[in-house]
Automatic annotation (TrEMBL):
One Gene Ontology CC term in the entry: cytoplasm
PANTHER family reported for this sequence: RHO GUANINE NUCLEOTIDE EXCHANGE FACTOR 2, ISOFORM D
Lineage summary: Eukaryota, Metazoa, Ecdysozoa, Nematoda, Chromadorea
Domain named Regulator of G protein signalling-like: residues: 19-149
UniProt GO MF annotations: G protein-coupled receptor binding; guanyl-nucleotide exchange factor activity
Name this protein carries in UniProt: Regulator of G protein signalling-like domain-containing protein
Gene Ontology annotations of biological process type: G protein-coupled receptor signaling pathway
Species annotation: Strongylus vulgaris
Pfam families tied to this protein: RGS-like (PF09128)
Length: 155
């Protein structure tokens, strides 16, 4: 079965008056197929950067590893999503988000210790809050378009 057929089937199984997993982000995260539908929607209308940032930082916060690994992962997230002109920059990324991350990343890999892991896990929280606001706005638009009966090909 093609992706578009699965997509239509998925959308038709959810009653239009009920938003199902599209009601909120926490619910959406637990339904991979619905998350894929929402990502497809974001790719067709705008940028999925906020959602990708949210999902990756969610995994980052629950990951296990050495302090050096966490520093490396934080650097990758920072350079991919947070700094201006990065490939997948999140909306509203400003100095209040950038500076705390930059400060902890300035610690050399030889200086980083176990205590820094918890700091690294929390350093993306302000960016995540802004990403969630952006995702919620996109989800509201998605729900509205679903209720209007528009199909992805009409977007």
């Amino acid at each position: 079965m093609s992706f578009s057929k699965r997509l239509k089937q998925c959308l038709s199984t959810i009653a239009l008056d009920s938003h199902g997993p599209f009601s909120n982000l926490a619910e959406l995260k637990t339904h991979p197929a619905h998350l894929a539908v929402f990502i497809n929607y974001l790719l067709s209308i705008d940028s999925p950067n906020s959602l990708f940032f949210y999902v990756i930082t969610d995994a980052f916060q629950s990951a296990q590893g050495s302090p050096k690994d966490f520093r490396r992962w934080a650097f990758e997230i920072f350079t991919t999503f947070v700094i201006p002109n990065s490939p997948l920059v999140i909306p509203n990324s400003d100095q209040s988000i950038i500076q705390p991350i930059d400060k902890i990343l300035a610690t050399t890999s030889e200086q980083i210790c176990e205590a820094d892991v918890e700091i690294l896990k929390r350093v993306f929280v302000p960016g995540r809050q802004r990403a969630v606001a952006d995702i919620n706005e996109h989800m509201a638009n998605f729900r509205q378009k679903r209720q209007l009966g528009k199909r992805f090909s009409q977007l």
